[in-house]
Write a structure and sequence with these properties.
The complex is a heterotrimer of chains A (315), B (317) and C (290).
Chain A: E1 4-13, E2 16-26, E3 30-34, H1 41-49, E4 56-61, E5 64-65, H2 70-76, E6 77-80, H3 92-102, H4 107-121, H5 136-148, E7 154-158, H6 166-182, E8 186-190, H7 194-200, E9 203-208, E10 211-217, H8 218-223, E11 228-234, H9 237-246, E12 250-254, E13 258-262, H10 269-279, E14 282-288, H11 293-302, E15 309-312
Parallel strand pairs in A: 3-8, 3-9, 6-7, 7-8, 10-15
Antiparallel strand pairs in A: 1-2, 1-4, 4-5, 9-10, 11-13, 11-14, 12-13
Helix pairs in contact in A: 3-4, 3-5, 4-5, 9-10
Chain B: E1 8-17, E2 20-30, E3 33-38, H1 45-52, E4 60-65, H2 73-79, E5 80-83, H3 95-104, H4 110-123, H5 128-131, H6 140-152, E6 158-162, H7 170-185, E7 189-193, H8 197-203, E8 206-211, E9 214-219, H9 221-227, E10 233-239, H10 242-251, E11 257-260, E12 266-271, H11 274-287, E13 292-297, H12 302-309, H13 311-314
Parallel strand pairs in B: 3-7, 3-8, 5-6, 6-7
Antiparallel strand pairs in B: 1-2, 1-4, 8-9, 10-12, 10-13, 11-12
Helix pairs in contact in B: 3-4, 3-6, 4-6
Chain C: H1 21-34, H2 37-61, H3 63-70, H4 80-111, H5 115-119, H6 125-141, H7 145-158, H8 161-166, H9 169-195, H10 199-224, H11 234-246, H12 260-281
Helix pairs in contact in C: 1-4, 1-6, 2-3, 2-4, 2-7, 4-6, 4-9, 4-10, 4-11, 6-9, 7-9, 9-10, 9-11, 9-12
The chains are: A alpha/beta (315), B alpha/beta (317), C mainly alpha (290).
């Protein structure tokens, strides 16, 4: 059973068709949602939450139909919206408690879970202050706390690191990774920062102009492409490149001592070092280039009109 | 080239809002090119930018931008473009009208303003059709683009941008960064404030770190890194037997600290002498007892500098 | 010694049933509404007339006391008209209370854009409005039919038997009349608060919504020389309804009399207008056209 299953989903808003026939199934533990502005990411999230009615087709979240099982879906989902969304007059504990009770927890359990969630995200004494006095980082954390408090099965995070300074952003990414490791929740993370998605997600859904541009499993991508190697070295890169080509590799050298190599299976990294010693260069940096998320994304964008491209899909 | 007319200067500038500290005793000289302001929220970045664009006056000290003083308003504002962080627009305008109106404030003729507005919107890659829709219906990224267009439209020599990539999708980010780099190369002063440090790395010529209203560091990333003397250089070596590698490094006495990576397939090495280290590493690799998969400097970037200098005490809770 | 790790743990306890969720809203709404000192002050002020009326009832039923206090002033009769006046007074206080409380219930949520987070929980838009409505209605009940019924009960106790028997219908009239007013007030209150951004303006707008149509109605009456403009005059309409429910004699001359159906229609239309406003404003996401 997939986490999110889309079946020719079509959503029209304000006279425009925003989502145009989305079909696909997502199963990952943490699913990244990417796409240029206006691609329909927010609309998709809103439709899954039941804020918009599909005009055609359907969608299922955790096996529940978006049209008929709205309330049950909302019971199993925790949502962290992108924009400011809170009740300024309440303090942190009260707000999280309120949300937990709305999700169905009895009052005593709600209070306990609220404090647990606040402790987990790292809001200390601040939880007793009114939310309108919070800084941006704290507001993001309180949104996350209220999404976690009732123990949802799917966590939807919309731009969780928005506006956070580097340390807070690192903490947030760390939290997301911990939640993912804990294992009881799936996550759908929408972000513009490819690096965050790369670090936390194992599957991505890329939207473009209301259609699916790609569904891709990042883990699989990482495991392939072992033999593309990028290096930085001091010394004469040309001689090095010559030698490598003689050994049967494709090799290209660039300015600044950068060299890219595609090696046949028979060779290993040691051979690079041996060749380097022979040609009198010193390798300073060496890494296997994996098909990073950026490449997947750019490739997906190149398909005009949004043909569905399954880069690789788990069986 | 007269130095004064080519730099942005802050001489011992302080700014207080009543009792509240904005910035305290900042002395800076910014050359043309791309400069990034980095620091936690509330550290004084916005104050610094407001001082640069003449929106606030310093409580003490002097600000001079390209030799001009903010008090000389007409000339000053023709040369400075500002893209603020805040997301509000006058009601009922379309994107095009907003940029056009901002241009008209400079007193140019209708056709000139029209032409410049079209050019600016093209530069930020805002769709022509979308430009004539009301801003109220724009997505966050489109609003960001309109603000950017308004800042560059009048071809200023100094461009001050407060978190300009906020809300932009990956392609728009890459395009904007390329635009900033291009403008920097053309000799403009481009001052950007950003939290996304790997982008900072890619684009900036220099970095200004600020926290709690104080200037902590400024200069090129690598220079700053070298100056942080009490922290030796750290590298990550991924290999199949990290313990063996670590023991070899210790044996040749060039390794200050070695720490195994959590997944057991790499080791973080700190070394005081980078050149020697690489030579020894190459030798070990050739020897073949340790299969080396990847080598990369781990802290020669903005993120590491940020950690060292600002760290978690710098950001307040 | 043991080390305790406090990691995230999923929730596997009982959950409350779906229909109770609006009650959660109502409970928190009540806390919001009554958390302010001004609410308490208004509440106390609203009950002061009841105290006065209590004394009046006591005097009316106690000839000895009356003799001592009033020394033969005109007779105080406790009848339908008396209770209509009591109800009227309380209901106008209810208007003031509603004008203060309704913005507190809704504007806090709307002002900080809490609706997306609220509606992402298992509660529908109707459930949301229902919860707020219950909180508001309950608060208003504290100053309308509850104290008036208490007065009625006291009167039944204090006066001789036949009075109670003869006037039992008053209880029905009081409750229904109050509830009708509460429903109208609550709908107007919630609609106005959801429309207007700032609480103070919402409070003022509530009074405007109640009294401005009255002025308009009066003007049209004067120009067109009819009495139908009175239908827009909420105070007059409500007083008429209360008089009829409680069985008191009408105030106006027969040719100015307003038919029941007309009044019912007016109130229904007002209610529907409020519901339309709520439908438009209580949304998780706004769709901007063009």
């Amino acid at each position: 059973m997939g986490v999110i299953a889309l079946d020719r989903l079509e959503v029209r808003l304000g006279g425009r068709t925003v989502l145009n026939g989305l079909t696909g199934e997502l199963r990952g533990r943490a699913i990244g949602l990417l796409g240029p502005n206006g691609a329909g990411k927010s609309t998709l999230i809103n439709t899954l939450l039941g804020f918009h009615e599909p005009s055609a087709g359907g969608a299922k979240v955790l096996g529940l139909d978006v049209r008929t099982d709205r309330m049950r879906i909302r019971e199993s989902v925790g949502y962290m919206p992108e924009n400011d969304s809170f009740i300024g007059n309440m303090n942190g504990v009260r707000f999280v408690r309120y949300m937990a009770e709305l999700a169905g927890l009895p009052p005593a359990a709600a209070l306990e879970r609220a404090h647990e969630a606040l402790f987990y995200v790292g809001l200390g004494e601040v939880r007793y202050r009114k939310i309108r006095t919070y800084s941006l980082g704290m507001k993001q954390l309180i949104k996350l706390a209220q999404a976690l408090a009732h123990g949802p099965k799917l966590l939807i995070l919309d731009e969780p690191t928005n506006g956070l300074d580097p340390m807070a952003r690192q903490r947030m990414v760390q939290l997301i990774k911990e939640v993912r490791k804990e294992g009881s929740m799936h996550m759908l993370i929408s972000s513009h920062l490819l690096r965050d998605i790369d670090e936390t997600c194992d599957e991505v859904l890329i939207l473009n102009k209301g259609r699916i541009a790609a569904i891709s499993n990042i883990e699989e991508e990482r495991r392939s492409h072992r033999n593309f190697i990028e290096m930085e070295m001091t010394g004469s890169t040309e001689a090095f490149a010559e030698k490598m080509r003689a050994l049967g590799c494709e090799c290209a050298s660039f300015a600044g001592g950068r060299v890219k190599v595609v090696m046949p299976d028979a060779l290993s990294a040691r051979d690079l070092y041996v060749t380097a010693a022979e040609t009198g260069v010193e390798i300073r940096r060496i890494q296997q280039r994996r098909d990073s998320l950026e490449d997947i994304f750019l490739r997906a964008m190149e398909y005009e009109g949004g043909r569905v491209e399954h880069v690789s899909l788990p069986a | 080239m007269n130095a004064a007319t080519d730099t942005i200067r802050f001489e011992n500038v302080s700014k207080f809002y009543g009792e509240v500290l904005g910035v305290n005793r900042i002395t800076l000289r910014l050359e043309p090119g791309v400069t990034t302001l980095v620091g936690p929220n509330g550290s004084g970045k916005t104050t610094l930018m407001n001082l640069m664009t003449g929106l606030v006056q310093p409580s003490r000290g002097e600000v001079s931008v390209l030799g001009l003083k903010p008090s000389n308003a007409t000339e000053f504002f023709c040369n400075v473009g500002y893209c603020a962080q805040f997301d509000s627009f006058p009601r009922g305008l379309t994107g095009f009208q907003f940029v056009l109106d901002s241009l008209m404030l400079f007193g140019m003729s209708d056709e000139d303003a029209h032409g410049l507005a079209v050019e600016a919107l093209e530069r930020v890659q805002l769709d022509a059709a979308a430009a004539h829709r009301k801003i109220a219906g724009y997505s966050k990224g489109m609003r960001q683009k309109v603000r950017l267009a308004q800042a560059v439209a009048h071809h200023p020599r100094v461009l001050v941008l407060d978190e300009p990539l906020n809300g932009l999708d990956p392609m728009a980010r890459a395009e904007s960064l390329a635009l900033f780099q291009e403008l920097g190369r053309q000799g403009m002063h481009v001052v950007i404030s950003s939290h996304i440090l790997d982008e900072v790395d890619r684009v900036s010529d220099r970095v200004v770190l600020i926290t709690g209203g104080y200037l902590i560091a400024q200069g090129n990333i690598h220079e700053v890194r070298q100056e942080v003397r009490d922290k030796p250089m750290q590298l990550l070596v991924r290999c199949d037997s990290p313990e063996l590698l670590a023991s070899k490094m210790f044996a040749v006495n060039h390794c200050v600290e070695a720490r195994l990576h959590a997944d057991g397939r790499g080791v973080f090495v700190r070394t005081g002498d980078v050149d020697q280290f690489y030579r020894i590493l190459n030798e070990i690799a050739v020897e073949g007892l340790v299969k080396i998969e990847a080598v990369a400097p781990f802290d020669d970037n903005a993120n590491a500098i940020y950690q060292y200098l600002i760290g978690s005490e710098g950001g307040t809770v | 010694m043991s080390v305790f790790l406090h990691d995230y743990r999923p929730y596997d306890g009982v959950t409350t049933s779906l229909w109770r969720r609006p009650l959660v809203l109502a409970r928190y709404g009540m806390a919001e509404a009554w958390g302010s000192k001004i609410t308490t002050i208004l509440f106390i002020a609203a009950l002061l007339p009841c105290v006065v009326e209590l004394v009046m009832i006591y005097l009316a039923d106690n000839p000895v006391a009356r003799m001592l206090v009033l020394r033969g002033s005109p007779v105080l009769v406790i009848n339908e008209s008396f209770f209509v006046n009591v109800l009227e007074t309380q209901c106008w206080f209810a208007l003031v209370l509603a004008a203060w409380i309704a913005p507190r219930l809704v504007s806090f949520d709307l002002g900080d854009n809490a609706l997306p987070i609220l509606l992402s929980h298992p509660i529908s838009r109707f459930g949301y409005v229902l919860g707020k409505f219950i909180a508001l209605a309950w608060s208003l009940s504290y100053v309308t039919w509850m104290p008036v019924l208490v007065l009625l009960v006291y009167q039944c106790y204090a006066s001789p038997e036949p009075w109670a028997m003869a006037h039992l219908g008053l209880a029905f009239g009081i409750v229904v009349g109050s509830l009708l007013w509460i429903v109208v007030l609550a709908l107007i209150g919630l609609a106005v608060s959801s429309w207007v951004k700032w609480r103070v303006i919402a409070t003022g707008a509530m009074f405007a919504v109640v009294f401005v149509p009255a002025g308009v109605g009066g003007i049209t009456d004067a120009i067109l020389r009819t009495h139908w403009g009175l239908l827009l005059n909420v105070p007059v309409v409500m007083t008429e309804i209360w008089r009829r429910l409680l069985g008191a004699p009408p105030l106006m001359s027969p040719q100015l009399e307003l038919p029941n159906t007309a009044m019912a229609v007016v109130l229904l239309l007002a209610g529907l207008a409020c519901i339309a406003v709520l439908n438009a404003r209580i949304r998780a996401r706004e769709v901007v056209r063009g």
